[in-house]
Write a structure and sequence with these properties.
- This protein is mostly helical and 354 residues long.
- It has one domain.
- The radius of gyration is 21 Å and the shape is globular.
Length: 354
């Protein structure tokens, strides 16, 4: 962000409010873990819900807005960049070429299928993209990473995350029922869970009851699936830049203004800084140039910053807009998840996973 916009005194009230919501969300997650053994609603989701509740009862005055907007945009982009430190080429190669190609193929098929379904149900373009990426890659994290690239607003993000979060809990509880229903082995179920469950902690929750083999395979498949986030975000970034360039041309035609001589967007708009940072950190991790002592702090920082950003998004949500999209969003999320499960089952059969 521009140096002039980074004014700590101006940003402090809003950032402090987002941090307070984040702490409350993390405390509630801790309470869940102590009471039931695992968090059915993670802090990331709770931060949105708490932020939305606060926004419904109190509209922040102007002095709070710069820090809230800073948290929702810059801190989220910083979190996405830090995720690159958790990616390595070794992780990709560990699953084997057949399953690796299958995972990539499923993501590449599921995203456009889910997007077209969302548009068919009448969802706005940005919400359809968020739901497609969330269902096909890694749920909340994918939605959070894609949102700044396609310039989705708080209502779009909150709607997408709220409904995918609720469905994610349902999937964790119900997916093990497919083991006896379809006669799945531990390995087959692990692949299915890794391809369909949203978050890594949820994969653990969904596979532990089935056995250690299912947990190990499911976690590995899930991590490889998460790796698709980088290429997908980069692709969407390039696509968004082309759309913006077309919009500039249309505006110039209407207003009669002269186009820039090059007719090109700045490189910083073509490939956002945080995507460059993400890819650079992933490359350094693959080359084993990131100190191992920094990996856990980087992952923890990315998670914490993402929760703060979600709190900021919740504080900017208009509940009436979210409620208005409820039925269509729910239908899109449910049906696209069923499509993903069907494709995943087909892949398991085609690859002959025992």
């Amino acid at each position: 962000m521009p140096a002039a916009a980074f004014n700590p005194i101006r940003l402090a009230p809003g950032v402090a409010l987002c941090a307070a919501v984040t702490v409350a969300a993390m405390v509630l997650q801790g309470v869940e873990e102590r009471l039931v053994g695992r968090p059915y609603l993670e802090a990331l989701v709770l931060a949105i819900l708490i932020g939305t509740a606060v926004r419904s009862l109190w509209t922040p005055p102007q002095r709070w807005l710069p820090g809230i907007n800073f948290s929702a945009k810059f801190l989220l982009e910083l979190a996405v960049m830090l995720l690159g430190a958790s990616i390595s080429a070794q992780t990709i190669l560990a699953v084997g070429p057949g399953l690796l190609i299958g995972i990539m193929g499923i993501v590449l098929v599921a995203i456009p299928a889910s997007y077209m379904l969302g548009r068919f149900l009448g969802l706005p373009q940005r919400i359809a993209i968020l739901i497609a990426c969330g269902n096909s890659i890694c749920g909340n994290s994918a939605i959070a990473a894609v949102a700044p690239v396609i310039r989705a607003d708080s209502d779009d993000v909150a709607s997408s995350i709220a409904f995918t979060a609720v469905l994610g809990v349902v999937v964790v509880l119900s997916l093990p029922l497919l083991v006896p229903l379809f006669g799945l082995s531990a390995s087959q179920y692990g692949v299915l869970a890794g391809l369909t469950v949203y978050a890594v902690p949820q994969v653990l929750a969904a596979t532990v009851p089935v056995g250690l083999a299912a947990t190990q395979i499911g976690t590995l498949v899930k991590l490889v699936r998460v790796l698709m986030l980088g290429p997908v975000v980069l692709f969407l970034s390039l696509g968004a830049s082309r759309l913006e360039k077309a919009a500039i041309h249309r505006s110039a035609v209407v207003t009669g203004e002269a186009l820039p001589k090059t007719g090109k967007l700045p490189l910083s708009r073509l490939v956002p800084w945080f995507i460059v940072g993400f890819l650079a950190l992933a490359a350094l991790r693959s080359a084993d140039l990131v100190p191992h002592a920094m990996l856990a702090p980087a992952a923890a920082s990315a998670n914490f910053l993402t929760i703060i950003a979600m709190a900021a998004l919740g504080l900017g949500v208009d509940v009436r807009v979210v409620a208005g999209a409820g039925g269509r969003v729910t239908s899109a999320v449910v049906v696209s998840l069923l499509i993903l499960i069907t494709i995943s089952m087909a892949l398991i059969r085609v690859l002959g996973i025992a």
